[in-house]
Design goal:
By secondary structure, this protein is α/β, with parallel strands linked by helices. It is built from six helices and nine strands, in the order E-H-E-H-E-E-E-E-H-E-H-E-H-E-H. Strand 7, helix 4 and strand 8 form a beta-alpha-beta unit. Helix 3 packs parallel to helix 4. The longest helix is centred in the C-terminal third of the chain and has 16 residues. It is globular. The two termini are 28 Å apart. The N terminus is likely disordered.
């Protein structure tokens, strides 16, 4: 495990992808609430939801955040400073032209949308200028995707399993590779703010 995120300034990145499952709404709100404006990094989130249920995530977060929040649509381009959620029942990918792609391919690790699918595609699209954050969750979706980000040269960050509401997801990621940062949410937020500052300057 590498040192605490605060010990050295992070390099410039161009996008952040985030994944969570059980306990994820609360964790994401703690991580992302009241982000300062102007905000420039695009944020893309897969949060596991029951299949066939309408998602209100974009509305929930739009009411609590200053940055614009959307449900991602097929062929929609990623805009700086916007936050996007994967719609329920679809895998969300990022193409090399940095537009979204939706697919109805079979679930991955019992999940659709899959965190692995988003993160692996984002690693291909962004390479070393991508950061991936993996939070609380009850399965191992996201571990492979975070490894793909690491192998592409991106930055990987995992919520401290001791703080996570459900530790399975962060523990699976840590077992597969040594993330750049394993931190409680308060320090993950500080890292995110550092990444935004490095992106701007």
């Amino acid at each position: 495990m590498k040192p605490n995120a605060m010990q050295s300034p992070p390099r410039r990145i161009e996008a952040v992808v985030l994944g969570a499952s059980a306990g994820g709404i609360e964790a994401l709100l703690r991580l992302l609430h009241d982000l300062p404006l102007p905000w420039n990094l695009p944020l893309v989130v897969v949060l596991h939801l029951p299949e066939g249920h309408e998602s209100h995530l974009a509305e929930i977060f739009a009411e609590r955040m200053r940055v614009p929040v959307h449900e991602a649509g097929d062929k929609m381009p990623l805009a700086p400073g916007h936050m996007y959620f994967a719609p329920p029942g679809y895998h969300l990918s990022i193409e090399r032209n940095r537009r979204f792609s939706l697919s109805c391919e079979p679930p991955v690790r019992f999940s659709r949308p899959s965190i692995d699918v988003l993160m692996a595609s984002a690693a291909d699209a962004y390479g070393p200028v991508l950061a991936g954050f993996l939070l609380t969750g009850a399965n191992d979706d996201g571990a492979e995707g975070l490894l793909r980000i690491h192998l592409a040269g991106g930055i990987t960050a995992v919520q401290d399993p001791n703080e996570a509401q459900i530790s399975t997801m962060p523990e699976a990621a840590i077992a597969l590779h040594s993330p750049d940062h394993v931190l409680p949410l308060r320090e993950l937020r500080a890292l995110l703010l550092q990444l935004e500052s490095a992106h701007v300057h």
